[in-house]
Amino acid sequence: MSIDVLQEKIRSMKNPSMIGLDPILELLPEQIKEDAFQKHGQTLAGAAEAYRVFCCGILDALKEAVPAVKVQTGCFQAFGADGVRAMEQVLAYAKKLDYYVLMDTMRGDIDCTAEALSESYFGGVKVGENVYTPYPCDAVMTNSYLGSDGIMPFTKYCKQGKNVFLLAKTSNKSSREMQDIVAGGRSVYQVVLDLAMRWSIDLFGKFGYSEIAVAVSGKHPAVLQEMRRQYDRLFFLVPGYGAQGANGRDVQYAFDRYGYGAIVCAGRSILYAFRKAGGDGADYQKFALEAAERMRTDITQYVRVL
Amino acid sequence: MSIDVLQEKIRSMKNPSMIGLDPILELLPEQIKEDAFQKHGQTLAGAAEAYRVFCCGILDALKEAVPAVKVQTGCFQAFGADGVRAMEQVLAYAKKLDYYVLMDTMRGDIDCTAEALSESYFGGVKVGENVYTPYPCDAVMTNSYLGSDGIMPFTKYCKQGKNVFLLAKTSNKSSREMQDIVAGGRSVYQVVLDLAMRWSIDLFGKFGYSEIAVAVSGKHPAVLQEMRRQYDRLFFLVPGYGAQGANGRDVQYAFDRYGYGAIVCAGRSILYAFRKAGGDGADYQKFALEAAERMRTDITQYVRVL
Asked: Considering the domain A3-300 in this protein, what is its CATH number?
């Protein structure tokens, strides 16, 4: 896939949303946990099985409504090898259902580690005569603190239809401590956008956007507006919607006047919508779909996604 | 463990070195790969088994000579769940042999993901009535691009004898793109050191060093010297030694006048020392130990570790 394919997917589903799969054990529907513990005991394998069932259930529920998902690797890795096995299965299932799949690694790597990881996502890991891709996906999100050395091992797969998202301006309160440092009129997060542009030379798709995208939080609408103006060829992933506080009015500035150029991400407000309704979670899929539809309606009242 | 225990370990072994376990499949001794493939085929499970055997062999070889190891999570994660299972076993074995164990995660996380991960390293993951620690270790290295929100979920375990290392100035060439940005007389990497100090208030050990440490590359001796002068209460992890180019003369500036305050990290130059000798790797343990001894001799000619 590529950034064009993602944008076409957004158009055809009329929904510029990406759902974040950030499972949290205590928030899962009780029945899913009970079933998993029945099978595996109260073990990491049991917890991982619950994540797998829940996430696949979310993927089933949203497949007609949502074009893309973001898989938070840390949630799964916290359960050790069992969690990672569940993540492999969730990734494969998301690809099978034809979602655009972004792995949110939060990592910044260089050198042989970056090479090894990029193979595990994109290129395939060679073991003797065989090649394996344990983490099938369309894109990864990386941390740019290490500079170009941490970007290039991943962007070399952009010509093969993969995307790289760089963390630029994040949603959390303390993001300003590092990211808002300004030198020579440029903030640190702008340096990330400049790096993305620098490595994009021959990577622009038919809608004008680079295969190297950036994450810019929806919680700072003025930043979003200014960055959209200055970087009209970078696709924006916009976190911070929903549970984290941003709404449709805030995130509209991420899009260009034709409704291209961005996708908005929400996790908890969709996954755990059933909890607000006070139910036991048996109908978590219905609530997730309704919440995703509300999110679509909220955003598309400001953004024209024809 | 704590930063005091690490410093005492360095003293008692007279060796301020940490060995980086960064396994790379193609560089492993042939026999180890053959045996693993014999058992598991040319699969990710086979490759992971080779990593486990090799890393445990290195741990056995160096246990009398080296006080600490750094486990590069990405190398193992690149083999999927099988790789992560091998990493769990390597971590547990390193702890069993009484190494000080640093998990090099290269991640920067916040919020529930950071909480989940910190439990998986330090606090224990609760599953029903049970508690699991899939990644037993003494310390983690994190990426500070997200600011305090990415540090606090980990530093809260410092009072329970755990350490947090923050990536500050890395060894790679493009580290300057982000880390050397200067605003108001402070570089971005100094902001990381300032953050470490800010959160260290009640975390200073008996040798005067904080439980929150920082990574400052040995490839920039002038930086190391200046940072040592300015931040005399932060413990430095010094990567970049050996294969990456720094030597004993360069890294000496990381230490205080009594030989406290730092540990130097090397990976490939130790793990794959047998390759320089042109052997088939049957004696990789002997070569690794010799290389570790040379590293110790090189550093301690400049640094007094009584």
From this structure: 3.20.20.70
